[in-house]
């Protein structure tokens, strides 16, 4: 057992984005930090590296250039309408974090990041368009700003200064060290952490690693910041906390949108030591998951971030009720799907739709943006070709059926359906009825209306939403069906924290010495999103809460 005392000002557990931001802030204040992570150095930056780097900003120059009229008031109305905070105790801190975070996104956030070297692409995405009412869930306007360089760039701007601080001796990393226990003094304050040293590994980033223990360790410091992420890859915990009444029956088949280290262990450890966990039933999983044909972590799932035009059908071929259109209302769609008794659904679309409307979430799925090459981006985004990564899924993905005619498409769908049955005549009727609605520039079909509405926004018209056309139009390319699975990703609840990111105890008192930030703290407060997210708010939540934790811990001593 190695034991170290009195050498550093703070311990940060977890070297994901929240941990890096907290460490960056501590070192800016001249503090000495030990950063502990169960994975190896290849995984620096955690999940954020894999992300698309979408960031929620309010009334930004990028929005204004596209004619989008946004304001802090509109953003707060959207946030609160989406969050639906309704719990007196558990939502006490989340409500305050929500107001503070929307204010941050409308003021300091962009400059804070730009000073570190982060830039954004010019087209702002319109994610999570909502449930159909102005005061309900959803973004009234596009706010999803994609980082130039995607997730790796978000990581880089914090990792670089932290690595520089390592060079100066301010930061020490303990990789392959897994924290199993918080150490408390006689007054109940956290004074350190204890755990296991795991066997060394050269595994590539994201690959699941062994949990073989080769030693034990303990480290002491006046402040411990927990930034260990959520529960997304721990399907046992997801099932345990699943809100059946709100989201429908627990899906039997789930695939993982996060690496295996997003294991949720530290939540239980913190709770065992005396931290208050809140809003555990709030989670943000996606209904548009596809099995990665080239997996990196176990059960690796990729999320389609869809434009609004694909026809969305349940396992038996019935259209999902309005407004459960692609990209509108994640949780309502989840319930609509699961209430059918099946844990999958279908997109039916054309070559023209897939070419323009299928974005795949993940830095590795967007090599043009990740590689920061203007030429490649212009070529891939403005050309009339199906993007390479999407084409690879059409060719190799187990969820894709690509055929020249409807009877063959339906036969292919029925081959890979998990229990549901698609009737050819019924589907033909559904599609033909839908197709009658695209002849005019207006329609009574709510999805077609939504497509026209989207194309009123320049960004959508240019790169995101296909011109309305008949699905059975031979000129629109092959017919495509995609079997959509439930993909687990984000944890919206977690460790309760006050605005200083100090962990709270169940009795409402501060847990002295302990701080939490990032996904483990519900991105701030134990659930800054409430029930629903507006998207691009997770990386931002890690940055905002990591910054708060680092600054507060730095003020400590
Ligand atoms: C593919 C993908 C796309 C995404 N796209 C977006 C997007 O566009 N916009 C957005 O806002 N969000 C996005 N997200 C979500 C966002 O990336 C994450 O929510 C965020 O990065 C979480 O960061 P974190 O620091 O809280 O936790 P993590 O990144 O999970 O880091 C936690 C770290 O703690 C370590 N750890 C855990 N337990 C222990 C322990 N007991 N001892 C030691 N170490 C431990 C883990 O090994 C890990 O390195 C995406 C996520 C993924 C996976």
* Overall strand count: 22
Give the distinct bound molecules: flavin-adenine dinucleotide
Relevant CATH superfamily of the largest domain? FAD/NAD(P)-binding domain
In terms of DSSP E residues, the strand content is 15-25%
CATH architecture of the largest domain: 3-Layer(bba) Sandwich
In total, the number of domains comes to 2
Oligomer: single chain
Mean pLDDT level = 96
The low-confidence runs, each spanning 5 or more residues with pLDDT under 50, are: none
Calculate the terminal CA-CA distance, rounded to whole Å: 28 Å
Supply the CATH class of the largest domain. Alpha Beta
* Estimated helix fraction: 25-40%
Structural class: alpha/beta
Q: Could you list some keywords that capture this structure?
A:
557 residues; alpha/beta; FAD/NAD(P)-binding domain; Flavocytochrome C3, Chain A, domain 1; eight-stranded mixed sheet; six-stranded mixed sheet; 34% helix; globular; binds flavin-adenine dinucleotide; KsdD_DH; FAD-dependent oxidoreductase 2 FAD-binding domain-containing protein; steroid dehydrogenase activity, acting on the CH-CH group of donors; FAD-dep_OxRdtase_2_FAD-bd; oxidoreductase
Topology:
Elements: E1 2-4, E2 10-13, H1 17-28, E3 33-37, E4 54-56, H2 61-65, H3 72-83, H4 92-106, H5 108-115, E5 144-146, H6 150-167, E6 171-175, E7 177-184, E8 190-198, E9 213-220, E10 223-226, H7 235-241, H8 244-247, E11 254-256, H9 265-273, E12 277-278, E13 283-291, E14 301-306, E15 311-314, H10 330-338, E16 344-350, H11 351-357, E17 358-360, H12 367-370, H13 374-382, H14 388-396, E18 400-403, H15 406-416, H16 424-435, H17 446-455, H18 458-463, E19 479-491, E20 494-495, E21 502-504, E22 510-516, H19 537-556
Parallel strand pairs: 1-9, 2-3, 2-10, 3-6, 10-22, 11-19
Antiparallel strand pairs: 4-5, 7-8, 8-9, 12-20, 13-14, 13-19, 14-17, 15-16, 16-19, 18-19, 21-22
Helix pairs in contact: 1-6, 1-19, 3-4
The structure holds flavin-adenine dinucleotide.
Flavin-adenine dinucleotide binds near residues 17, 48 and 539.
């Amino acid at each position: 057992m190695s034991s170290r005392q009195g050498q550093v000002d703070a311990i940060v557990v977890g070297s994901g984005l929240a941990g890096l931001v907290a460490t960056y802030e501590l070192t800016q204040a001249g503090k000495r930090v030990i950063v502990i992570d169960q994975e190896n150095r290849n995984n620096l930056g955690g999940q954020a590296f894999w992300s698309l780097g979408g960031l929620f900003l309010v009334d930004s120059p990028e929005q204004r250039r596209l004619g989008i009229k946004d304001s802090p008031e509109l953003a707060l109305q959207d946030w609160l309408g989406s969050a639906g905070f309704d719990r007196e105790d558990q939502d006490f801190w989340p409500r305050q974090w929500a107001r503070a975070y929307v204010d941050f996104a409308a003021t300091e956030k962009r400059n804070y990041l730009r000073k570190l070297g982060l830039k954004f692409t010019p087209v702002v995405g319109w994610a999570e368009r909502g449930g159909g009412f102005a005061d309900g869930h959803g973004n009234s306007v596009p706010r999803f700003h994609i980082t130039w360089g995607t997730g790796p760039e978000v990581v880089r701007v914090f990792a670089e200064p932290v690595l520089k601080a390592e060079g100066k001796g301010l930061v020490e990393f303990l990789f392959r060290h897994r924290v199993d226990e918080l150490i408390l003094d006689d007054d109940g304050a956290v004074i350190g952490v204890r755990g296991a040293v795991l066997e060394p590994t050269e595994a590539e980033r994201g690959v699941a690693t062994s949990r073989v223990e080769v030693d034990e360790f303990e480290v002491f410091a006046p402040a411990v910041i927990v930034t260990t992420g959520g529960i997304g890859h721990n399907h046992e915990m997801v099932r345990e906390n699943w809100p059946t009444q709100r989201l429908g029956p627990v899906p039997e088949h789930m695939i993982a949108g996060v690496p295996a280290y997003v294991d949720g262990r530290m939540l239980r450890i913190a709770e065992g030591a005396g931290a208050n966990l809140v809003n555990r039933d709030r989670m943000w999983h996606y209904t548009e998951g596809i099995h990665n044909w080239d997996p990196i972590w176990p059960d690796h799932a990729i999320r389609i971030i869809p434009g609004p035009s694909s026809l969305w059908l349940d396992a038996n071929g019935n259209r999902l009720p309005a407004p459960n259109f692609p990209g509108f209302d994640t949780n309502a769609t989840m319930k609509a799907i699961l209430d059918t008794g099946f844990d999958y659904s279908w997109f039916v679309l054309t070559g023209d739709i897939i070419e323009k409307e299928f974005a795949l979430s993940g830095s590795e799925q967007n090599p043009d943006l990740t590689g920061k090459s203007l030429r490649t981006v212009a070529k891939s985004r403005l050309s009339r070709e199906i993007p390479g990564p999407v084409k690879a899924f059409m060719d190799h993905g187990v969820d894709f059926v690509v055929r020249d005619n409807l009877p063959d498409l339906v036969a292919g769908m029925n081959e890979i359906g998990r229990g549901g049955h698609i009737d050819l005549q019924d589907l033909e009727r559904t599609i033909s009825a839908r197709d009658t609605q695209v002849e005019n520039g207006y329609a009574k079909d709510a999805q077609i209306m939504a497509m026209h509405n989207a194309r009123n926004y320049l960004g959508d018209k240019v790169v995101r939403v296909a011109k309305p056309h008949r699905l059975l139009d031979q000129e629109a390319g092959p017919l495509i069906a995609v079997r959509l699975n439930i993909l687990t990703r984000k944890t919206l609840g977690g460790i309760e924290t006050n605005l200083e990111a100090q962990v709270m105890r169940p009795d409402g008192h501060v847990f002295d010495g302990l701080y939490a930030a990032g996904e483990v703290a519900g991105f701030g407060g134990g659930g800054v999103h409430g029930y629903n997210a507006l998207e691009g708010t997770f990386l931002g939540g890690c940055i905002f809460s990591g910054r708060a934790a680092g600054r507060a811990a730095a003020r400590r001593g």
